[in-house]
Amino acid sequence: MRQNSSTDIDTAVPEPSQASTPRAVDRWMLSLLQRGFGTAPVGFVLWDGTQSSPPDGPTAGRLLVKDRRTLVGLLLDPELNFGEAYSSGRLDVLGDLPSLLEQTYRAWEQEGRNRRPPRRFTLRRPNTLRRARENIHHHYDIGNDFYRLWLDEQMLYTCAYFPAPGESLERAQVAKMDHVCRKLRLRPGDKVVEAGCGWGALALHMARHYGVEVKAFNISTEQIRYGRGRARAEGLEGRVEFIEDDYRTIRGRFDAFVSVGMLEHVGREKYAELREVIGRCLRRDGGRGLLHFIGRDRVRSLNPWIRRRIFPGAYPPTLRETLEAILEPGGLSVIDVENLRLHYARTLEHWQERFEGAVEQVRAMFGEPFVRAWRLYLAGSQAAFATGWMQLFQVVFAHTGDNDVAWTRDHMYGAGS
Amino acid sequence: MRQNSSTDIDTAVPEPSQASTPRAVDRWMLSLLQRGFGTAPVGFVLWDGTQSSPPDGPTAGRLLVKDRRTLVGLLLDPELNFGEAYSSGRLDVLGDLPSLLEQTYRAWEQEGRNRRPPRRFTLRRPNTLRRARENIHHHYDIGNDFYRLWLDEQMLYTCAYFPAPGESLERAQVAKMDHVCRKLRLRPGDKVVEAGCGWGALALHMARHYGVEVKAFNISTEQIRYGRGRARAEGLEGRVEFIEDDYRTIRGRFDAFVSVGMLEHVGREKYAELREVIGRCLRRDGGRGLLHFIGRDRVRSLNPWIRRRIFPGAYPPTLRETLEAILEPGGLSVIDVENLRLHYARTLEHWQERFEGAVEQVRAMFGEPFVRAWRLYLAGSQAAFATGWMQLFQVVFAHTGDNDVAWTRDHMYGAGS
Asked: Are B215 and B239 in contact (CB under 8 A)?
């Protein structure tokens, strides 16, 4: 039954109150909050049980707002304070969090919110070498023990490639590495540079299975240490060099340039520097490049809570922005683009399941607010990819006019792939 | 041997003179012209045999400038007057035309001319419905008899897809149609709209082999008549409707939108109208779109001679421009991009060979200047694709957030492809 959102406030289902009794002003704020959620099928419950419902009913669940401070915060800056309140436990979900987020994003996408121009007054600090290091330390140096609890065995923290949707995460991450290597047409003896190598799985995979030499850059101390350990253990030190440094320090010429999951952390202000690095390090005759990154269909700021708590300095660009700032002025030619958005949604489903399976250990390590923050981040990311709020692009490129490019894509889909 | 271009002028090899004896001013103009060609390995010969060579020698051949008017014209507006002089026979090539053009483009690409900003003061008239009709009539209504002389048997006048470089043109054009149909994931019963259908080969192919219903739009009277004739002859009138009208008049909802080789003729000023057409005619749940078009890596005006004599109103956009003006603001999501530049170079090799094989008939129909203009246009186009001066993009898209997209590209490369 279709109801008017602003009048559907009643106190029929009281909840244990832990704050003051709602006053007229609270009900008025509640109606504003409900209106702000638009057609999202999400209702609200205040601390005393006062309820509010959206036009078509709260089919995705209700949000329990536990005190007045939270209600005010959600009105003033919903994008930031939803995450803050949820993590601290002042906001709860009565229903399934991933499903509630996905239905909300889908409703907002259909309303066209994704197409609204971004906020104009967001303060963004460029990622200087020092700030880049701080930002990356913030997220990636939480501790390898933490990531080992819920990533695949090779510790890949980027979108997997599922040959079929039911494939295991372990196999899908290996398939992703092969997908990338095939797109790069790696040949034994090639010199490859990897910008932002995570825990080193792709660098080691390329060296072991494709016979190439890899220089792998990363500014996360913990990740580099881990990668070096694996290289030693697997006898690949001679073929994979892990370099704890910024991508901007890359020197030399390479047959292939690859970067998986780093562009999101570069920041728009620094695309010219990345372009310069690619331009000088990629061979002009037969050099192949690949950028794998989280992107958008429309320009939009990153959610401010994600930027504050999860990924400082991050920005997912549109495909157009990467063309405008990196590929076109860099004298580079787009060979192939693939959008793997639904593969990232699937990857995040696996991560969520594993995270919840290890949640007691995570709670013991970092406490409940951390658990709730990461639960929200993983569920929100899955919802964003599942609804088209975010994209995952793989872009293959070469210098303009270089004819040493693949004739067709058949080599990527041959027997055994 | 490296020589200085401006001093390498001598009169050692006199040619039969047909104009006045060169004066000091002619030699000065010749040295300017030579300098303007930069590192292109192309020399010049004036009407009396006066020669000029580029820094590394005229390894690609020489251009014979037959009179002073042509020399002046080449200096004032080389891009326009090269074509004008060549067509009229006032300029000749001593050497192989396609190879000379290809080496010139390659040298210029390496000099970075492709990256220079475009001219600012080009007058471009928007393609109103009436002007679009005139422009298309200019090129496509020359007569089906002419195109039949050198196109494949199904009359496809767009880039073919060669599963292997040695494939025949006939088979490569069929492979192209199947490549497009697979990218669109056509299913029996689908309603498909084609914007700019040429002589109708793709529309008929889709209906016959994929069991879909097609509405095919084109404003070329001769092409539509030809397509209707084929539909009748092949018993496909009930499934393919050829509509002699502009793409802007498309109405209704379709499972697939396809346009092969039309975007180049739309003109930047009208991208918003095309976007509006796609947005309203493509189903929001499971609608698949494909744009196949000649593009660029960098913004550049179309060669003014091509625009005047061959394709009035045409403009090949960069991938960024199509994202900026059509896909991003249209609420569309890029699923797949493939660059088939080298396939177009190969297609043009076939066309040139067939054109030269039928050149006596073409000369009898239209005269020598027409033959020379088309020879230059075909050779110049081949050179442009072979050197990266032009690109051929196939872009697959859907409405943002539509999850009825292909899980992988495996369906395009299965057995039998």
From this structure: no
The string over B93-126, giving b where at least 16 C-beta atoms fall within 10 Å of a residue's C-beta and e elsewhere, is: bebebbebbbbbbbbbbbeeebbeeeeeeeeeee
- B121 occurs within a structural domain: no
Rounded to a whole number of angstroms, the CA Rg of chain B reads 23
**Of B92, B115, B138, which residue is a domain's last?**
B115
Which domain-ending residue is among B84, B115, B146?
Answer: B115
- Give residues with Cβ within 8 angstroms of B128, minimum separation 6: none
CA B214 to chain A, closest CA, distance in angstroms equals: 27
The alpha-carbon gap from A339 to the nearest alpha carbon of chain B, in Å, equals 5
State the Cα–Cα distance between residues A273 and A397, nearest whole angstrom. Answer: 17
Q: Kindly report, residue by residue over B298-326, the tens digit of the pLDDT.
A: 998 888 899 888 888 889 999 999 999 99
- Spans in chain B with pLDDT lower than 70: 1-20, 22, 114-126, 136-137, 140-141, 415-417
pTM, entire model: 0.92
Residue B47 domain flag = yes
| pLDDT tens readout for residues A336-356 | 999 999 999 999 999 999 999
Instruction: Say what angle helices B341-357 and B169-183 make with each other, to 10 degrees.
Output: 150
Q: Tell me: pLDDT of A263 over 60.
A: yes
DSSP string of B38-81, one letter each residue = TT-SEEEE-TTS-EE--TT--TTEEEEE-SHHHHHHHHH-HHHH
A302 and A187, same structural domain?
A: yes
Q: Which of B386, B381, B361 is nearest to B371 (CA)?
A: B361
Nearest Cβ partner for A320 among B163, B323, B335: B323
Q: How many domains does chain A have?
A: 2
Same domain, B106 and B143: no
Residue B247 in 3-state DSSP?
helix
Structure token pair of residue A158: 């980027």
Q: Tens digits of per-residue pLDDT, A119-136?
A: 444 445 667 777 777 776
Closest residue in A to B388 (Cα–Cα): A401
B297/chain A closest Cα distance in angstroms? 6
Name the token pair of B85. Answer: 């002089």
CB pairs < 8 Å spanning A and B? 130
Distance CA(A265)–CA(A385), nearest Å, equals 18
Both tokens assigned to B298 = 């960098």
